[in-house]
Amino acid sequence: MKIALLWFLVATAYTALAGPIKSDFSVDNYDYPRFIKFPDGEGIMHDVDLEAPVQQPIFDEVNRNPANNQYLLYTRRNPTSSQSLVINNAASIENSNFNPRVPTVVIAHGWLSNQDTNINPVIRDAYLGKYDVNVIVLDWRRLAISNYVTAVRGVPAVGRGLGQFLAFLNSVTGAPFDQMHLIGFSLGAHLVGNAGRELKGKVARVTALDPAGPLWNLNSDRVNPNDGVYVEAIHTDGGYTVGGLGIGSDVANADFYVNGGISQPGCLTNICNHNNAWRYFAATVSYNHIVGRECSSSWQITWDSCKGPELNLGNSDLRKWGSGRFRANTRRRYPY
To answer: Which domain of life is it from (predicted)?
Structure first.
């Protein structure tokens, strides 16, 4: 009896520390406080008022003119010096190193970030170090530098602009949608979801790296399973815990809750947990070595007792397919 009681108390304490156990990992009704902190691309935390007014001039401009986005091409012929591709300017594409016969990878950063933010060179170099691909870095700083509420409201328009750009790329070069992989981090995860939606789900893959949580739980514009042929989410800082930056609920065909989806090995902050989503993904492009196991309940995810089929997290496979919720475990240091 004493042993059973001790086990019950330990389990109760662990559950309290880990956050609420939910039967379906759904946090659609999670109520964020009005004032939160959210990081920029350099990991610096900023005060955010989730009820702040929209910066209307920027919002209106983004809605009127999605061509404000910058599309920066990197290939093995120019791995570190970008070439600018411009929507509705065929010459900018025809005179570049873009090769329609190889896959195209698009990377979208998050809030208060730009083309130089770490996610872009890290994922770019992982791809070009192993594959002959077109890497297009989307710089959407014109909206991303606005306040958080404005950025959230404008994400669908920027995503539609990216979708329209890819449709133009297809019309000029014949590059097929089934050879395109859209990768976005935090707010950028919802952005690439909207781009895939603009293309009616024709792109081969959409990868959502710890999709942002604040103002997205009940937002119909968030990334969803219909945005691509295969949509995958990698959760590392679940939003149903205090200070969580990611959405922490199922949004894709396959949702990976890495190390339980809340706290990552070697991390002491939410920023570290959040950013590890793109670090893990980049490592899987190089090694394809992190394997998830399907889980039948959030209890199994929390207690690391999933016993379902295996599915590799991340990687570059354009024919990848899977569905369900998975737990994947990593080590604390690269390549994890």
So the answer is: Eukaryota
